[in-house]
Amino acid sequence: MIHFGLQARRVVADDQRQISNLIFHEANVHRHLDWSSPLDWIGSPNYWALEEYGRVVAALACPEDPPRMAWIRFFGYQPHLSGLEAWSAVWEAARNDMLRANAQTQISAIVTKQWLQNLLLASGFELRQNIILLQLMIGASRSFPAPQGFRMRPMQAADMPAVTEVDYDAFGWFWHNAFATLQRARAQSISATVAENDSGVIGYQITAGNSLGAHLVRLAVKREAQGKGVGAALVSDLIPRLDARRLSVNTQEDNVASLALYEKLGFVRTGERFPVLVYPTGI
């Protein structure tokens, strides 16, 4: 069924209530795995609404955070539309505006729902890699002390510039988080610690609580210190502080070093897998 009267436009502050209804009352919703609500991104340039006779019936948020890296943070639509109809209308507007402003912008998504994956693949997105989930039962954990010359301590607000530097050095351009994102992660964490030596902060971990226990949302060590046991020591230092029976973590399926570290600590794969899709650009 073709719906007439559909028009894509940028989201404005007055759309907050209608977008909130999309988030909380519709089944057809994708939300990015991060520390922000879709409402937090209202006011960002790359946020579009699909309007039908003055009513918001779909919305798409893919702000650049960090710059030139636009993750699809939110897409939702009302059920009287088909997914293809809603997506095609708002995606065309978003893609054209974003790539016109900067043809080097990388538009990507971590997919948790099959219907979104189908829409993205039909729009030219390509599979980059998979994210997998691992889990550790706290009683089965293996402990590793801090290597000589390294110290663990709680993360402080003053550490955030150094933590951001570590994050970029460890993860590279595609996967790194911006300063403000890491600040939000720390603010919402149940544990955040750094590893340091005489040169300063060399690694960090941030862990959040969830309904099943705890989730290690970020673990990073500068490349110069990788392979020396710093990552294992950060996790070993974390575990006794947790009031949880299990600890989960995500990593890339093709990240051999990361998988080796987590398996050494006692993590096992759960079998869950989340595709990472990218839209081919000039990058």
Question: Strands across the major sheet, in which order?
Answer: 5-7-14-8-13-12-11-10-9
What percent strand? 25-35%
Total count of helical runs of at least 4 residues: 7
Kindly name the structural category.
alpha+beta
Quick one: biggest sheet?
9 strands, mixed
> What would you say the CATH architecture of the largest domain is?
3-Layer(aba) Sandwich
- Classified in CATH, the superfamily of the largest domain is Gcn5-related N-acetyltransferase (GNAT)
**How many β-strand stretches?**
14
Level-1 CATH class name of the largest domain: Alpha Beta
Q: Which series of helices and strands comes N to C?
A: EHEEEEEHEHEEHHEEEHEHE
Radius of gyration: 20 Å
Stretches where pLDDT falls below 50 for ≥5 residues?
A: none
Shape assignment: elongated
CATH fold node name of the largest domain: Aminopeptidase
**What integer is the average pLDDT?**
93
Q: In angstroms, what separates the terminal alpha carbons?
A: 37 Å
Query: Helix amount, in percent?
Result: 25-40%
Number of domains: 2
Would you kindly provide a written description of the structure presented here, covering whatever features stand out?
The chain has 283 residues and is an alpha+beta fold. The protein folds into two domains: 119 residues, Gcn5-related N-acetyltransferase (GNAT) (Aminopeptidase); 142 residues, 3-Layer(aba) Sandwich (Aminopeptidase), CATH 3.40.630.30. It has seven helices and 14 strands. Strands 5-7-14-8-13-12-11-10-9 form a nine-stranded mixed β-sheet, sandwiched between helices. Helix 6 links the parallel strand 12 and strand 13. The chain is elongated. The model has no long low-confidence stretch (mean pLDDT 93).
